[in-house]
C-alpha cells in the first residue's frame, strides 16, 4: 500500500482538509436527513467508531443514544473543531498510513460516511483490513460513498470510463483544494470488503446520491 502515489494522495488529502477545515465545517453543521435511517444500526452501550469524522456531526446525531463514541480523522484542524463542539466525546487524529490506536475487537459499530471515495482501491483495502481488526466479531460497519456517476456531483464527464476525478472545494480565502475521488460501483466496493474478511449484509443505492454498504466482521 505504501507507494509514492498513495503517499501523495494521502498527504494531499490531509493538507487539503486542513486548508479548507473552517469552510468545510461551516457547510456541514447538521447531519444528513437522507441518512437518518442509519440510526437503526446503533444500540445502547455500543462502542462506535466514526472513521473520517470531520467536524463530528455524527456525534451530534447519535447523542441521544447511550453509547461510547470515538471519532478519528486525518485533519488535525477538523479534529480541533470537533473537540471544541463536542467536548464530552473522544476525538483523535490518525496518521495517514498507520494503524489505529485501538485494541483488537474494540468496537461494536463503525461508521464511515463519505470517506472511502477519497481512497483508491489499494488504500481502501488497507483501511478495510485495519477497521476489521478493531471491530468485534459479528460487529457491523456502515460505509457510504458518493454515487459519482448518477448523483448530481460535479464531475466533468459522467459518461466517461474514468475512475478518478478531482472535485474542487473553495475555502474562505478563495483558495481551491481539488479533492481526489475514486468512482466506485457497489460491486467494486463490496469486493474490497469481502476480500478483507467481511460478510456483505446489505448494499444499495440511496436516493441516487450515495452507495450504501453494510458489512459484518465474519467470525
Give a structural overview.
- This protein is of the alpha/beta class.
- The protein has five helices and nine strands.
- It has a seven-stranded mixed sheet, with helices on both faces. The protein has a two-stranded antiparallel sheet with strand order 6-7.
- The chain is globular.
- The model has no long low-confidence stretch (mean pLDDT 89).
Can you count the beta strands? 9
The largest sheet, given as strand count, sense and whether it forms a barrel, is: 7 strands, mixed
- Average pLDDT, all residues: 89
Separate helix tally: 5
Distance between the termini: 25 Å
Q: Which superfamily, in CATH terms, is the homologous superfamily?
A: Vaccinia Virus protein VP39
Helical fraction = 25-40%
Strand order of the largest sheet: 3-2-1-4-5-9-8
Compact description:
By secondary structure, the protein is α/β, with parallel strands linked by helices. The chain contains five helices and nine strands, in the order αβαβαββαβββαββ.
Amino acid at each position: 500500500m505504501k507507494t509514492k502515489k498513495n503517499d501523495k494522495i494521502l498527504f494531499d488529502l490531509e493538507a487539503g482538509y486542513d486548508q479548507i477545515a473552517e469552510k468545510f465545517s461551516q457547510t456541514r453543521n447538521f447531519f444528513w436527513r437522507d441518512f437518518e435511517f442509519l440510526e437503526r444500526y446503533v444500540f445502547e452501550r455500543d462502542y462506535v467508531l466514526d472513521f473520517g469524522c470531520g467536524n463530528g456531526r455524527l456525534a451530534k446525531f447519535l447523542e441521544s443514544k447511550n453509547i461510547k463514541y470515538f471519532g478519528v480523522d486525518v485533519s488535525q484542524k477538523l479534529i480541533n473543531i470537533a473537540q471544541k463542539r463536542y467536548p464530552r466525546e473522544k476525538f483523535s487524529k490518525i496518521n495517514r498510513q498507520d494503524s489505529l490506536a485501538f485494541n483488537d475487537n474494540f468496537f461494536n459499530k463503525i461508521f464511515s460516511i463519505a470517506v472511502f471515495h477519497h481512497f483508491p482501491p489499494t488504500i481502501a483495502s488497507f483501511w478495510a483490513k485495519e477497521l476489521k481488526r478493531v471491530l468485534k466479531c459479528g460487529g457491523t460497519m456502515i460505509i457510504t460513498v458518493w454515487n459519482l456517476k448518477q448523483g448530481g456531483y460535479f464531475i466533468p464527464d459522467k459518461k466517461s470510463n474514468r475512475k478518478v476525478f478531482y472535485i474542487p472545494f473553495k475555502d474562505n480565502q478563495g483558495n481551491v483544494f481539488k479533492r481526489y475521488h475514486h468512482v466506485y460501483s457497489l460491486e467494486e466496493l463490496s469486493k474490497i470488503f469481502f476480500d478483507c474478511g467481511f460478510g456483505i449484509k446489505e448494499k444499495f443505492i440511496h436516493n441516487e446520491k450515495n452507495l450504501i454498504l453494510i458489512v459484518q466482521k465474519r467470525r
